[in-house]
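Input (Zinc finger BED domain-containing protein 1):
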Amino acid sequence: MDKEGRILNGKFNFKAMPDGSLDKTKVICIYCRCELRYHRSTSSLKYHLLAKHTAEAEKLPRQMQTMLDSFQRRRMDNSTTNKLSTAIAKWVATAWRPIDIVEDEGLLEIIRIASNDCTYELPSRATTVAKIHNLYEDEKAKVVEALGQTNTVALTGDYWTFRSNHSYLGITAHYFSPQWELKSHALTVMETEEQHFADTCAEQFLQVARQWGIEHKVSTLTTDGACNMVAAASQLPVEHMPCIAHSLHRAITVSLQNSPFNSALAKCRKVIGHFNHSPPNALELEQQQIAHFHKKESLTQDASTKWNSTLEMIKHVLRNQEPLRDALALHPTNVTMPTTAEVEKLKKLETVLEHCRYITELLGGEKFVSCSVVLPALCHLSRVMEVSEYDPAYMVKFKETFKAEMEKHKEKTNIMWLRVATALDPRFKGLKCLSRPDRAEVWRLISALLRERQRPAQPEQPATYEPSKKRSALMFASESSSDEEEDYIEKCVERYRAEPTIDIEDCPQKWWSKHEGAHSEMAYLARMYLATPATSIPCERLFSLSGHVFQNKRAALSSENVKMHVCLSNWVSAK
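Output:
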């Protein structure tokens, strides 16, 4: 291209605009005045010369003629070209690449080398964006179809603020497929400009449910324990499930405040900061790790917003005591390692925090049942936190504070929903985590739920949701049932209770897929209760994904494109 705007040795000129400027996205052939699109690649222009002006193409310089000959000899077929362009669009969308990467000559060169020098023209920005939109619509249609095949859907929701100070609402959906696979999909990452008052939050959740056609299928909403989210959930016709992971880590934070562990933890933070904030210090630590035959690893600093980070910090310091001590001894410094007594404290704290980490990971999965595990897990944690006669005073204080804090949070959780979910899990249906009176109460509740399900369907009313009209699956049937219905319901419950309890390592979904025919009524309840996430971690993962999408090189993405890229990445990765 020369200074006068001529391309390909003067065979094409940029299109002149009425105001005298040049439109550098369009060129005009000097022979036939044909208008062609131009995106920094001359492949289509060369093809036009060969197809329409062969004689003129032969007059091009020798080097350019060689390029044309190569272009004419080896052209990628249309099917392969389309597949490759679609794959590039999918890569851009799901690998969080800036859209202008399709103009990268290096990428084009890689493709040409991989295809044995076949001629290929990278798709334009507009083509790539259009393909991403098509991919989004295709994947969305699959999610809509899958949601249409289930009777109940559980949601998780949370708000998050990007670095650009824009607030977004993330919502995920969870349900069982007909084959009892636990499915998880992002429904939206939508920008919100209003204040997060309870009324506004409730309306936004309903709006998303309506958009996906599931407003009458939603059974539960799992959120954190923020006051506005709790108040919003109380206005919705669904059951609210407070996030157990938030409660657990809030209890840890409170238990460590003004505790005897403060001095030891402060030293750990100072030691790690000494090496993490200085490359020369970090290099000296690495050399000491090698000298002591330790694995080379960077140290983790704890953060209040990062779960389990205090545990990771303690583990790193305890694992690297000798390398850290020797590295600190190389130069005069006021940074000191924890004393022997403080190391002993850290080891005891590590032991109990390891149990908390295990439970967080156990309850935070999306591919396996978590709601039914909450009560057995909390029962296990309660036993771990029992004070023994061998516990020093600082551990007694920590355990007592932790247990008291967990009891406060337990009072706010949806305990009845958790109990029913536990009973419907064939691993825990013995309900050993409950007292005998509570076990009997759970089975009476399940009988009432089945009785409610046996009622004739009521005529569908217009959807006018009010707090007083909450559609709760936990309500007991108020009308008397016939003796035949009562007998049928009792037999359903007793037949299920008579089944042997499966091993804790076995999969409850596989058990229900094999026994659904024998326990069809109970299976309906199991699909509703066991699909409920115990935590809002799926939303936290969604926001982590959003952080990858919304990078500095993609800071100009519109809110609609943020939603499209995040949801598409979530749907594709879930396969």
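Residues 65-73, 457-469, 471-480 have pLDDT under 50 and may be disordered.
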